[in-house]
């Protein structure tokens, strides 16, 4: 089973919003085979609490305005702004302070899951530099 195309498109919208707000280390995984309650996980990092909050707010705004009025079913971590989780049901967004992301290293949970191509403009340049 693979993630719904609508979930992948929404994750790409969220990733573009995070990228526009200068989030770093943006990655998404198709976890539909591993996790029964959601299709995709999106991770993005920011350098301070203010930026974590700004990235999460921009993602929410874009998913509402560009993603068919999507609204999160749940929001966690807004007060502390170290790790904000936005639960959209079919996908979950994690916006994390860099230190929290390094500490929890969520990628290890999904390392066997396929990565989703987010189609971000800088991703092509980074891939060309690595080659």
UniProtKB/TrEMBL annotation:
The keyword Electron transport does not apply. SUPFAM superfamilies: Nucleotidyltransferase. GO terms for cellular component: cytoplasm. GO terms for molecular function: ribosomal large subunit binding. One of its GO terms (biological process) is negative regulation of translation. Keywords: Cytoplasm, Repressor, Translation regulation. Pfam families: RsfS (PF02410). It is found in: Cytoplasm. The keyword Transmembrane helix does not apply. InterPro entries: Iojap/RsfS/C7orf30 (IPR004394), NT_sf (IPR043519). Functions as a ribosomal silencing factor. Interacts with ribosomal protein uL14 (rplN), blocking formation of intersubunit bridge B8. Prevents association of the 30S and 50S ribosomal subunits and the formation of functional ribosomes, thus repressing translation. PANTHER family: IOJAP SUPERFAMILY ORTHOLOG, MITOCHONDRIAL ASSEMBLY OF RIBOSOMAL LARGE SUBUNIT PROTEIN 1. Interacts with ribosomal protein uL14 (rplN). Belongs to the Iojap/RsfS family. This is Ribosomal silencing factor RsfS. The gene is rsfS.
